[in-house]
Amino acid sequence: MIYVTHRLPVNEAGEPTLDRSAVWQGLVMKANNALPFVPIMTHCVVTALIDDETFDREIELFGDRYIERISLQPERRVVFTRLSGPVLGTISNDIEEDEGALFLRFSFALVLESAQSGSPEESAYADETTKHYIAAVGATLNAMRRVARGESSVALPAS
């Protein structure tokens, strides 16, 4: 199993200040359509609405298709559970607060179907995936900042 967690500060000097609500809205937008937020993703479509806080989506990363179940925990966390595809597991995006400062934590626990646990192949995949997912956290925050500056047309889907 590959497990990685990484945390970045939400607010930086010279950028719009984002509060918890703005970060939450950005995470909900990303869950519904990750393309403006995750540069390595080439396909993202909601395929099933389970309830107000749960839905399924189909995504494509590096030419591989996945079905993910998205669980929204309002103002706190979004959990992506891989239901199908060559790499299964969970990914979470957590809004954290430490001494009044907001952070976005990105964690994943994944199992590479084609490799044995602890193998060189799994390690190589873990290194590459970690690099891309950490970049995705930064891209997500940058997309939220573009929305806050009014530079992006990213919007929530109509209910």
Summarize the structure.
The protein is of the alpha+beta class and 159 residues long. It has helices at residues 20-32, 120-148, and strands at 2-9, 41-51, 54-61, 64-73, 77-84, 87-98, 101-112.
Apparent shape:
globular
Strand order of the largest sheet: 1-7-6-5-4-3-2
CATH domain fold name: Alpha-D-Glucose-1,6-Bisphosphate, Chain A, domain 4
User: What is the name of the CATH architecture?
Assistant: 2-Layer Sandwich
Number of DSSP strands? 7
What is the CATH superfamily classification? START domain
Helix content, binned percent: 25-40%
By CATH reckoning, the class would read Alpha Beta
Provide the succession of SSEs: EHEEEEEEH
Q: Which structural class do the helices and strands define?
A: alpha+beta
Query: Structurally, how many domains make up the residues?
Result: 1
Radius of gyration: 16 Å
Strand content is: 35-45%
Largest sheet geometry: 7 strands, antiparallel
Number of helices: 2
Mean pLDDT: 89
Which regions are unreliable across 5 or more consecutive residues at pLDDT < 50? none
Head-to-tail CA distance between termini: 37 Å
